[in-house]
Amino acid sequence: MFIFxxxxxxxxxxxxxxRIIGRISEHMAAQPGFRTHRLYRNSKNPLEYVEIAEWExxxxxxxxxxxxxxxxxxxxxxxxxxxxFATYEQxxxxxxxxVTR
Length: 101
Description:
Blueprint lengths: L1 E9 L3 H16 L4 E8 L6 E8 L2 H8 L2 H10 L3 E8 L13
Helix pairs in contact: 1-3
């Protein structure tokens, strides 16, 4: 599994940002290897967002990000937000079913 996490701060029009991030999300969800996508807004600062996407592997994610359906809207998005892109690997985790009392 490949996890992609980025932090975005809206610096332009919020409605445009939301429209564009929606376009990108729809494109990515239709790509081979896509698993999940979540977008979170900071409850204390509504201009800060965190996006978490899970992919089957890094190669399929890279292929999806090289397509015009991603690159073109990303260029538009960068006019409305600063983005800190990063990849992560899981080092630990717990699920509710694993907790014993």
